From TrEMBL, chain B:
A Pfam family matched in the record: UreF
Superkingdom: Bacteria
Role, per record: Required for maturation of urease via the functional incorporation of the urease nickel metallocenter.
Species: Microtetraspora glauca
Gene (name only): ureF
Localization per record: Cytoplasm
Family: Belongs to the UreF family.
Protein name from the UniProt record: Urease accessory protein UreF
Amino acid sequence: MRTSSGDVRSSVRAHASIRTELLSGGGTRLETLRSDPPLTLRQTGPGVVHLVSTAAGPLGGDRLRLDIDVAPGTMLDIRSIASTLVLPGPFAEDSVMVVNARVGAGASLRFAPEPTVLAAGCSHRVAVRLSLARDATVFWREEIVFGRHGERPGRCRSRFDAVVDGMPLLRQELVVGDPASDGSPAMYGTARCVGSTLVAGRGATGTALGETTRETTREATEDATRRGHAEAVRTGKAVGRAVLRDGCAVLPLAGPGVLVSVLADDAVQLRERLEWGEALAAPGGVAPAFPSGQR
Amino acid sequence: MHAALLLLADSRLPAGGHAHSGGAEEAVRAGTVTGPDDLARFLRGRLATAGLVAAALAAAACELGSAAVDTSERVDGDAGTGEGDPAMLPWRRLDAEADARTASPAQREAARTQGRLLVRTARRIWPSPALESLARAVPDGAHHPVALGATAAAAGCDPGQAALAAAYWSVTGPATAAVRLLGLDPVAVHRLLADLAPSLGATARAARTALHTWTADPGAPWTTNPDVPWTADPDDRRASSPDIGRATDPDLIGVEFMSDACWAALPATTAPALDLLAESHLRAETRLFVS
């Protein structure tokens, strides 16, 4: 594969990791910040890390892995400098991106990189495995663009699993570019972009969405779900109703979280719609909610 | 072919399935399904997402239900009755897996309504400890695929048949609804379903396979069908050891038998448009179908 700079590179294995540590004064320190090109990490502020891609791709054959460990009581904000362009490799191999994130008790993680663009011919797999302590907070945004301008996208499967205190909160897998379901009005219709933001834990609710997602212990969640459902059956009205606007749904989950789900025609519209839904899903904002004095 | 499977999949089974269009009514209203071609694409997308997930959950529920039936036969019909019935825990856990795969509250409600009606009906048609323990464990109604799998177990079907019934349900309801909503030629629509038949079988096989094979290696090769599930929880060591959870002690069957890790990795293919359709359908002023 010839990259934009004209180099030819072979496929890479990279394993980067970030681990936070609670300072005695209550602040967050990055205990580990291990880059592994092309996954390059830069600290750009207190508890803020930017992902800087230092090579084209990922390309087919690349296996990238990022481990994130947010220690109890700490806060981490992960962003990226630019969008990720997934390209085919020299051989017919998938590119793979795995993100394992663990968020401890009272900790908060915001993960909002720029979009992933699926270039023609790519074959990409993503797995995000998010494990939350029951009073952890998370804001996790994922944006996928179906090809560059005027281009048909390659293929992608993106699996997302979020577990809170051992109980499943959200499991979903987006499949893009499968000829069997391409253009289905049940999946993406005519949209060129799909995105979602999971807001979970403290702050993951809103007056617009009712009460069902506010309680965060496992028992309380199950109870609330059962009560909420029983009430829905009795009154015929949904408890914790979704909020809807063109191409955007703010969906209270059965567990302690809200999913903003968006379909859009382009990346600008995708971000606008997501931000509209995120404001409803987390009216007070979630991470980074740095207490004054920590910056 | 088990004859009970025919009864289970029959639209004349009095379990209220005819009242749901699976998003088809709203898609017709929104103008994204206008004729047989759109409908075919709608059904293929639905089968690849909601259909595959339903098939996998139904297969899991059928396996769990069959274990409940076996256990009760071994201990002479006493399947346990109180709150402490150990068989209730795995039903709740499987139902929670269905919840986690259904982000839309409107879809969760529709799934529970259909599941509740199905269990109510099935308990009279195929009395079984599987259905009794499910009804006790999730009294407000389990998700429809879970109820369908339990019903399949009660009727004597195997998990692969339960998966096939779920895949069939995922497209026949919307197809029939579209015939009524758009005034389509019923024969032409049944032709679409006949064309989908191989995919129904493939979906059921993929669901069945997903129940017993999962990979801890997310770099495993691309496959579209059968689905290759992911290990969901990196901390869950059990995920990498398929033998764990295969309890043989009858007291443990139904508790540890279906390991959480196994269910965690079941397919979770998502259809964002179906979520949007389900929510906007709730807000529609006139509705022929419940969902």
